[in-house]
Structures are given as C-alpha cells and as structure tokens.
C-alpha cells in the first residue's frame, strides 16, 4: 500500500513512520510512504498557505492554491483521497478494513480552521473524523487513521493476532493476563491456567459480552445473538452486568 500524507507540519509524523511495526512494514515492502510539506507548493516569496475566511469569522483557512498543487503532485489519478476533519464520517474498524484494501491512500491534514471547500469538492473522496472532538491539526488524526489501516494490510501483522481483537466481530476484547500468576495479591483467573480449552473459550466469550454490555451496548444492537451467546447475555443482564 502506498501512503501519501500532505501536511503543513510533516515533521510531526516522521517518528511514527520511522518506528516499530511501520518501519518493518516499509522495510518488507508492504507499505511505502511519502510525507509532503504543502508549504513547498506555495508560490509567493513568503510561502503563504492560509488566509482570512470569506463571510467573516475567527481564524484562517488553508489556501486552495498550494493544496491543489501538492495534491496534483502527490496523487495517482483515481487514488482514494482522504481529508481528516471533525466534519467527516466517523472512523471505525470496518472503515479501516475498507481502506486497507486500497492500493494507495492520499491523506490531507488540515490546520487552522481547515481547508477551502473547493479543494474538498475537487479532490477528496472521503472526509473522515476520528472522533467527536476537535484537534488543533490533522497530523494526529492522520496517524490514527494510518495506524488503524496499515496494520490490516495482509502480511503486516499475523492474521491470528487480528482475529479476536476488539471490533473484529463487533465485540470488545476479553481481559488478558501474563506472568506472574499472582501479582500484588491478584490471581490470574483459575480457568486460564486450567488447560481446559473449551472452558477458556467460553470464559473469554462471556467476558467479551460483559465488557461490551458495560462500555459499548450500542455494538450489541441488531447483532441478533442466538443460542449460547444469547443465554450468556441474558445471564449477564440478570446479574446486573456482573459475572
Ligand atoms: N473548523 C473546524 C471545525 O470546526 O470543524 C476545525 C478545524 S481543526 C482546529 C484543524 C484541523 O484539525 C482540521 O482541519 C482537521 O484536519 C484536524 N482535525 C481536528 N479534529 C479532527 C477530528 N476529530 N478528526 C479528524 N481531523 C480532525
């Protein structure tokens, strides 16, 4: 997958792209990336990239000229082009999986009050919000988006590691434990050291349902749980969410 991120402050993202799993994915040729400084495409001697908003109001807006030149230089024709913005469609795991199937993603980071609408109209295929809050700039949002997407590119992370993650099948993940078996007087649940695989699977599913019910009951709506799962949910509800 080719990732092309356009920003007024690309330096913010360098460490992310040069570290850990991303660095390995790049080294293995699974991901390639470019970080473009939009200011390089400003044509006046002060490299101006923002101006006042028509109609009045606080703050500045990113100028269409440098943005357009940077986008023309970056994107292959037809490439999926994302503008990260609080005014976009809410990002989630299913959306990340959809984007992970693209061969190329162009990602535009906003600053100030955002970008001129004509840039969105002309170049952007997806306006994406990472959550219902306002960040001061798009670089952090772009890194969140890229991080959620590239790890789903086949080969970046072992498939089994992704199978039981939160959201993969619409539930949150079960609690996990590592050594030591007793930490600060807290014991690892007996079932996890019992060696009884079927009971471990059952315990984990119960914990996933319990956690989802507690923090994200919206994820269970319309899921149509049947059989044993339904019985588990009814039992949990009967116990006031405690198991
Ligand atoms: N005036 C904009 C509004 O009210 O919707 C907010 C602009 S914000 C201060 C500056 C930039 O940060 C945006 O252009 C966008 O790129 C990024 N940003 C802020 N919050 C975001 C969010 N929740 N999701 C994605 N990007 C965000």
Q: Concise description?
A:
The protein is α/β, with parallel strands linked by helices and 243 residues long. It has 9 helices and 9 strands.
How would you explain this protein's 3D organization?
- This protein is of the alpha/beta class.
- It folds into two domains: 2-159, SPOUT methyltransferase, trefoil knot domain (Alpha/beta knot, 3-Layer(aba) Sandwich), CATH 3.40.1280; 164-238, Trp Operon Repressor, Chain A.
- 37% of the residues lie in helices and 18% in strands.
- The protein is built from nine helices and nine strands.
- The protein has helices at residues 11-18, 20-27, 64-74, 93-100, 117-123, 138-150, 159-163, 197-215, 227-238; strands at residues 2-7, 32-37, 50-52, 60-62, 80-90, 104-109, 126-129, 182-183, 186-187.
- The strands form three sheets. Strands 2-1-6-5-7 form a five-stranded parallel beta sheet, sandwiched between helices. The protein has a two-stranded antiparallel sheet with strand order 3-4. Strands 8-9 form a two-stranded antiparallel sheet.
- A hairpin with a 7-residue loop joins strand 3 and strand 4 (60-62).
- Helix 4 (93-100) packs across helix 6 (138-150) and helix 8 packs across helix 9 (227-238).
- The longest helix has 19 residues, at 197-215.
- The radius of gyration is 23 Å and the shape is elongated.
- The two termini are 43 Å apart.
- S-adenosylmethionine is lined by residues 84-87, 109-111, 113-114, 129-131, 133-138, 141.
